[in-house]
Write a structure and sequence with these properties.
Elements (H helix, E strand, L loop, with lengths): L7 H34 L4 H16 L13 H6 L3 E4 L3 H9 L4 E6 L6 H9 L2 H4 L2 E4 L9 H4 L5 E3 L2 H10 L7 E4 L2 H5 L7 E3 L6 H9 L2 E8 L6 E2 L4 H9 L6 E2 L13 E4 L13 H22 L11 E3 L1
Parallel strand pairs: 1-10, 2-5, 2-7, 3-4, 3-5, 6-11
Antiparallel strand pairs: 7-10, 8-9
Helix pairs in contact: 1-2, 8-10, 10-12
Amino acid sequence: MARQGTSYFRWLQGLLISSIFSTVYLLTPLYIISALIAICLQYPCKHAAYLYGAPLIISILTPSRQMLFLAKYMTSMVDYFDYEEVHEITNEECLKLANDGRKFILAFQPHGVISFCSFCSWINAPPELRCVQSAVASVLMKVPILKNVMGIYGLTDASSKNICKIFRTGQGVNGCVVLYVGGIAELFKTCKDEERLFLKNRKGFIKIALREGVDVIPVYLFGNTSVLSVLKTGILATLSRKMQVSVTYFWGKWFLPIPRDDKLLYVRGKPLGLPHIPEPTDSDVNHWHAKYVEEVSRLYNENREKLPTYKHKKLFID
């Protein structure tokens, strides 16, 4: 229910907006399959089949597009999750870094089923920082409906080739990226009772950062793993892992795709201070990866007391 200081209308509005994203994410695979079947079989009739499949056809023909202007219409989602931020480096300092030519990766963890904490950070961010694109699995950029709905936040291909291109050609914040370090594998570690990061062998982003001369700013997304639960076994879970996009069942309030209104906390640490090493050795990568793990653990342990659901939640690095 609505928290003190938040009207019931704002709470309900936030619930509806956040539920749009989770419901679309859950139902899109089923809709695509059913629309293709309806069109192929022209069932129940030709006109009805094409009318039902129209959103799919339009989405296929429409590229993913960032829509910065929508942020002002989504602020109730911030209230719904009682969202807060902790900055060890301010927004102004981030902008100055980027404008001075010091590009960076905003390394987000944990992934969660759907990253509502990062959605809220996008809504809450100044317009200049809202332009930073989020690197996602290539398949998400191609899935109809999802690419358009999630694309409002600004998506880009997470392949190393594309990320390097952004670093080399982008200017200011357009040369920086948000990267979900744990990826889809971390999604399946989502749990309300313990916090598990898929990180121990995730070193590619550190190697790229060293090679390209960009810094890494660790960001911890508290609450991402508690607002939704996910089915971790079965054929759909296996398919999700192989496709690098979730097509398995997940749930929140009342076992529906309605995210729980657990408190969300965005904690942004300081830049690690990575040097530019054009040909980093394994030793270089391991050293800075260990530094990143240390900083992520520190952010977690220093801030978890701020959320009731995290006080007794232990962090594991897998």
